[in-house]
Design a protein that fits this description.
- 33% of the residues lie in helices and 26% in strands.
- The chain has five helices and 17 strands.
- The chain is elongated and about 150 Å long.
- About 3% of the residues have low confidence.
Length: 346
């Protein structure tokens, strides 16, 4: 059989009948097709580019850190007012919160004792108003004993071996002894031949001081300037004197903590070296200087690394930003990325 291709035929005509073909593919159709291909392969291309960049450039996850301190109430009471809000800047000595003092039974007993003595002195002749001289040494020993008892009871309460009521009783006994010791110390300053009027005047002032202390609310002040990170207390919150009410950080002196993998640790991760820091808060890139040698090796905290290696051991490096951070960047614990440069230029 012989096949020949030399004969020219009209593709639009067969046996005298005209055949209509579909129109040729247009540019819009081609663009849609390329768009579909791009959308399908874009994740794979992005993954390859990301892996290539990570292989070519050395980078480490890190966080912004600031020195902070807790604010506590050093006595029992109920929070009645909070003067600040989270994120607000405060000056040193600014009022932070106000609380109603818890009035222990020991304080009320001391006030009743003073008033009873004052009432008794009102009917005593002047010649019988001399003060008895008691031993301060005995009172000091009693206060030391009760202070040790209060510490022991507190430790037992924290371990679950004692109740809060038992600890409060030990604390009230200590406060009562301290008040009695202070009253004795002040009374011994007065000469033995003092008159009843002098003693009554002193008792009146002492009673007024106790009443004022019992009814006057306690105000908590900021020991240093800073910015309120968070507030754990609320109005009506009852504190036992050692719970953290809020925390204040110093945004004027931030630093960076970088977690460097051991294989990436070289001369560029040494004191005095400069690295680039990518800040997610504003999208800026700034420079930071390594300020001290690494102190320890630790695992990368969860949540700050965008790879599956977040639990891996790393070297902790501290850096100082070379320029001031913006307000939206000064967030304690904000994740950042530190770039040390190209891998091969060591």
């Amino acid at each position: 059989m012989r096949v020949s291709f030399s004969r020219r035929m009209n593709p639009e005509n067969k046996d005298g009948i005209k055949i209509s073909y579909a129109p040729a593919r247009r540019k819009v159709s081609k663009a849609v097709w390329w768009l579909i291909l791009t959308l399908v392969f874009a994740p794979f291309l992005w993954l390859l580019a990301s892996l290539g960049a990570r292989w070519l450039f050395i980078s480490s996850p890190g966080v912004i850190a600031m020195d902070s301190y807790p604010v506590k109430a050093f006595e029992e009471g109920e929070i009645s007012r909070i003067y600040v809000r989270a994120g607000e800047s405060v000056a040193a000595g600014a009022p932070l919160a106000e609380m109603k003092r818890y009035v222990p039974e020991a304080g009320m007993a001391e006030l009743r004792r003073v008033k009873a003595e004052l009432e008794a002195l009102s009917g005593v002749p002047v010649s019988a108003a001399a003060l008895p001289r008691r031993s301060l040494g005995q009172m000091d020993s009693m206060v030391a004993h009760l202070a040790n008892e209060e510490r022991v009871m507190k430790g037992l309460m924290e371990k679950g071996a004692a109740t809060r009521a038992e600890y409060n009783q030990a604390k009230e006994r200590l406060i009562s002894a301290q008040n009695e010791r202070e009253a004795l110390r002040v009374s011994l300053i007065v000469p033995l031949d003092q008159s009843a009027e002098v003693r009554k005047a002193y008792l009146r002032r002492y009673a007024e001081m106790l009443e004022e202390k019992l009814r006057t609310p306690s105000v908590i002040y900021a020991p240093r300037a800073g910015r309120v990170e968070y507030i754990a207390a609320a109005v009506g919150y009852y504190t036992v004197g050692e719970l953290e009410l809020m925390r204040i950080a110093d945004p004027d002196d931030p630093y960076l903590i970088a977690y460097v993998f051991p294989e990436n640790y070289d001369r560029r991760v040494r004191p005095g070296s400069v690295a680039k820091v990518h800040l997610p808060g504003s999208g800026r890139t700034i420079e930071a200087t390594v300020i001290e040698p690494p102190l320890n090796a630790n695992s990368i905290p969860g949540g700050i690394s965008d790879t599956i290696l977040s639990g891996r051991r790393s070297i902790v490096v501290f850096l100082k930003p070379n320029e001031r951070l913006l307000t939206e960047e000064s967030v304690n614990g904000m994740p950042v990325r530190i770039d040390w440069g190209i891998r091969f230029f060591r």
